[in-house]
Amino acid sequence: MVSNELISEVFDHVQRHDAFGTGCPTGVDCLFALSKPNTTAYEATLYEPIMCLVLQGVKEAHLGEKHVRYGQGDSLIVSHTMPAISGVIQASAAKPYVSLAIRLDLALARSLYDEIGEPDVSAGDLQSMSVAKTDAGLVDAMTRLFRLSHNPVEVRALAPLVVKEIHFRLLRAQHGGMLRQLLLHDSPASRVSKAIARIRSDYNLQIPVAELAATAGMSQSTFHEHFKTVTSSTPLQYQKELRLLEAQRLLRAEAKPVSSVAFEVGYESPTQFSREYTRKFGVTPRQEKSSVTA
């Protein structure tokens, strides 16, 4: 059960830092507070591996044809870097959307292998973006981590222990199946993760699927099947999504010509870039730049 006191504390933290609508840092590097006093339009975004505990309000994310909705008391686990479309669908000034998010550390999770025991990596109901009601132990651990984040001495002494506890609890959670797969270096989830890392590092290059399959240590047909299971998209579509999201970031943050942004993210044709950007975001790259500078 999420306490009203915790909701107020997290909201006040975001308000003090004037960070509504963004991930507001805390005294713990991997922990962020989020709040939004109104609903939002659906926007394309890039989810990093995280766990998000919703304290109030409701948010929805679309990953390909899959839709996940998470509200008060739910926790969302994202196991891989995922391009998605998301928005806050329930929030108001009186009851804003409030959540806590922790960035996941795969190396830390794997260090818990001996404590977890042989993980259940059955293929059933494995999702890279999954939601379930949060058990009391995990809510308590997230509450303690947020509250100690205000005290630098406690952060140094206690935060690593609580972060480890949270990873332990997530690995044992009913919706932690994909995380449990990632404990095994040769599991399909881990192999796809290697290919995703390659795409992210070379997002502006045309990487043949054969090369990505080789990176994952799979045949092309097996790789394509597992990649689609994990990401709900094909490898080529995933590469395109990353390019367009990076282009959006550049257009909003830097005073570069549209053609320069197109070439920087790997497009050889500015015309093709403009067409695909407009199809993805509903505005042209030039309109995107204008909306930021207006």
From TrEMBL:
Residue ranges of domain HTH araC/xylS-type in the record: 193-291
Keyword field: DNA-binding, Transcription, Transcription regulation
InterPro entries xref list: Homeodomain-like_sf, HTH_AraC, HTH_AraC-typ_CS, Tscrpt_reg_AraC-type_HTH, Tscrpt_reg_HTH_AraC_N
Superkingdom field: Bacteria
Alphabetical list of SUPFAM superfamilies matching this protein: Homeodomain-like
SMART domains xrefs: HTH_ARAC
Keyword DNA-binding (UniProt): yes
Keyword Transcription: yes
Pfam families named among the record's database cross-references: AraC_N, HTH_18
Gene Ontology molecular function: DNA-binding transcription factor activity; sequence-specific DNA binding
Protein name: AraC family transcriptional regulator
